[in-house]
Amino acid sequence: MQDASDADGGADPAAPGYPAGWEADVVLHDGSTTRVRPIRPDDAEALQAFHVAQSERSTYLRFFAHLERLPERDLQRLVNVDHVDRVALVATADDDGPLGYRIIGVARYDRLDEDEAEVAFNVADAHQGRGVGSVLLEHLGAAARERGVRRFVAEVLPQNGRMIAVFRDAGYEVRQHAEDGVVSLAFDIDPTDRSLEVVADREHRAEARSMRGVLGARSVLVVGPVLPGAPPPRPLHLSMARAVLAHLTAGDPTLRVQAVGVDDGAGPRDDAFATVEAPADLAVLAVPAQAAPAVVRAIAPLGVRAVVVLSSGFAEDGEAGLARQRAVLAAAHGAGMRVIGPSSFGVLAVGETGTLNASLAQEPPHAGRVGLFCQSAALAVPLLDAVRRRGLGLAEFVSAGHRADVSGNDLMQFWADDDGTDVVGLYLESIGNPRKFSRVARRLSQVKPVVVLTAGRSGQVIPPGHAVRATQAPARAVDELMRQSGVVRVDNTHQLLDVAQLLAHQPLPAGRRVAIVASASSVAALVAEAAAASGLAVVGAQILREDATADETREGVAAALRDPGADAAIVVRIPTVGGPVPEFAALVAHEAARSGRTVVACMLGLRGVTPELTATDADGRAWTVPAYATPEDAALALGHAARYAAWRARDHGLPLHPPDADLRAAGRLVRRWLADHDELRLDPARTAELLGTVGIAVLPSYAARDADEAVAAARSIGYPVALKTTAPALRHRADLGGVRLDVADDDELRADVAGVLELAAEHAPEPGALPLEVQAMAPRGSSCVVRSIEDPLYGPVLSLGLSGDASDLLGDVAYGIPPLTDADVADLVRAPRAAPRLFGYRGLPPLDVAALEDVVARVAVLGDALPEVRSLELNPVVVAERGATVLSARVDLARASRADATRRLQRS
């Protein structure tokens, strides 16, 4: 059979004008996949076949007439486009025909003027209702905006309700009127809050459904390495296949499990896959990497929804391995399948009749309500072992290996709707799409806690085989990404499971006030110190002697756990004589369940989730007090839970829409200026023009080469003025003499010019700039620096610091990852340690923080809307008692693209 990558892997990237960046594999509404790409001249035969297969009604609705075949002239016009004024996208699927693929949907626009284009769609009758039209509209809209189109119009027959619904359901404000039996539609395609919400919701439902097909599989096919045409089987692959086969059979006797290529004694059979009974929901592959693409193509007719690839030998093995990985993805996505792996440990899912154990875990953890995701198979082994030893039950577990396709984002989409999962844990060695991670994690965290461990504190470790864009963002960017997302970030697997067991088995704390129960005052003091270090406020301690009577113990525990001034409790019982005290554990469990408060414990002989610390509340629901190895572990987990509860309860704000911000005008300017450049530094006039489109005014400054020109500029402005050097080392540094303020007259200005020029002579000048600037005086206040950089991985990264050594030398800078809300902006402004200077520090009057927030918001929306803004710096922004003034700005533009511009799967 023809390789999917050859059949429809995209046109030659060197083809003139062909926008290869528009190619994308996407998940449809039903959880399957399709390929979206620009149309090509060699699609003529496939397009004709698509047209001929359409019903008479569909043809009539598209062309307002019945055409059995497209005339050759029309056919050539439809497949030959310029990808600028005439654009067409096709959705394709692989098949066994002579072309190797078929078209299942077409979307196109023809430009009418600078801003407007006529749009049309046609989806194959057999594929309507799968979301093909919605995906094509989303991608066509993104392509149109890239080409400067801002409005779509269409003429539709009144009975074509499907097309009208596609436009309306996309979240656009559709205007329509009927005339002469035709409905004319028009709508702006710039993203709105509603359209972005619709896209996110569709993405969520599609990806959740695709994962539901994996974790809810009822029929599994295991493919081992004993295959026709494959090299001699490796013992490792045979062991993998046989282990998974045994685990599936033992885990759930109601599963239909079939196997191919696992019996090396019988030898390979040429018709091995012909004997498999369809459908097979899930396939697990333990085959040589070079055989994997052919195996994926061979199982495509069996109705497989997803493939778990246990084998290695793919992208981690260089270009040849990467080519094999791409071939697997092309074959899978062309046939509508998702891929988990390669180098996956497998998947686990607890169902009503047993456990779907399509993994290498011989002894999986018992059933529970925690969903767990990791990547490398090698890390899955100790992680699952630790879960099992703690008694922490799992609802689902997925190891994504190289996460060539399925990632943690897909699983979070599923867990958001899964009633059987209460807590999510993610061990992320790399984050391939941080912007999407932030969006999906934030949505999930608002309903369920998400505990995240990244490989390395920077979160920027790139294991071999993982596809990750390079990044120049500071390491603290990932900290801000996690904070904005509302996830609980931990430092190691020990903490990951410590926090997960608390969140899974106890209610969220109502606050950070904590009571302590301890067997000695010295222990209580240590616990109090650990609690304070974890951000908790200790409100009291009950000391229960080891020889306390049963009544004294009961009263002391009840007093602490029912204290109306406490939101949570830490119970520590470490006897110096004798062993564990089961009666004490039972008492704590009983009182904790009845109290409704969050309780953690550190008791000799108990660890994790234990029956000794389990009791039911008045409604009959079982609660377990999690047991920790040390009081510090217990306090740390409780602190994380309290912070998460506070984040979840707070107002997360509204999307930013600064008044008078015209992002469409900004986009037009940027596209015009970059028409003949790959990158460009804007001059002051263009910088002011661009910033003006979003409502940011830059106080004009006037360049001067000597005292005479400086005096002329000052007279035109009016005294008093500020004099500045343009030397980079001294620019904005009044403390070093590079800036002279409140210059009152000509004589003072001439003296200051002499001093500044003498000082600047010792430093390198700014290339191409005159040595001096003269500017009107701004109201006095605190100076801040606002920056936005476009990072290849994170997209826009916003930063704010107060000018001076605090930010320059000590790194006192706060970061934000747009898109932001107004609450995020408020947090950002208050995050630097020097921020108290803005709020009336040491008796000084408070400054206009709202004005600074407004400037930050405008920078955030500009950076979010235009990836071409490679860097933007406002330095300084002077925040006064009334207003904030931008004294200087610098903007660099460059051609750019983002990984999350449209819905798309990885293709490598």
Explained architecture:
The protein is of the alpha/beta class and 908 residues long. Helix content is 35%, strand content 24%. The protein has 26 helices and 37 strands. Strands 1-2-3-4-5-6-8-7 form an eight-stranded mixed sheet, with helices on both faces. Helix 12 packs parallel to helix 13, helix 16 crosses helix 19 and helix 25 packs across helix 26. The longest helix has 23 residues. The radius of gyration is 32 Å and the shape is flat. The two termini are 22 Å apart.
List keywords for this structure.
26 helices; 908 residues; seven-stranded mixed beta sheet; eight-stranded mixed beta sheet; alpha/beta
User: How much of the sequence is in beta strands?
Assistant: 15-25%
DSSP E strands, number: 37
Largest sheet: 8 strands, mixed
Structural class: alpha/beta
**How many helices does DSSP assign?**
26
Roughly what is the average pLDDT, rounded to an integer? 91
The general outline is flat
Topology diagram in text:
Layout: H1 4-8, E1 24-27, E2 33-38, H2 44-53, H3 56-63, H4 72-79, E3 86-94, E4 101-111, E5 116-123, H5 132-146, E6 151-156, H6 161-169, E7 175-179, E8 182-188, H7 193-215, E9 219-223, H8 235-251, E10 256-260, E11 282-285, H9 292-299, E12 306-309, H10 318-334, E13 338-340, E14 346-351, E15 354-359, E16 367-374, H11 377-390, E17 394-399, H12 408-417, E18 423-428, H13 434-445, E19 450-454, H14 476-485, E20 488-490, H15 493-505, E21 513-518, H16 521-533, E22 537-543, H17 550-561, E23 568-573, H18 582-595, E24 598-603, E25 614-616, E26 622-624, H19 631-649, H20 663-673, E27 679-681, H21 684-693, E28 701-704, H22 707-717, E29 721-725, E30 739-743, H23 746-760, E31 772-776, E32 781-791, E33 795-802, H24 805-808, E34 813-816, H25 822-830, H26 849-865, E35 869-880, E36 884-886, E37 889-894
Helix pairs in contact: 7-12, 9-10, 12-13, 13-14, 15-19, 16-19, 17-18, 22-23, 25-26
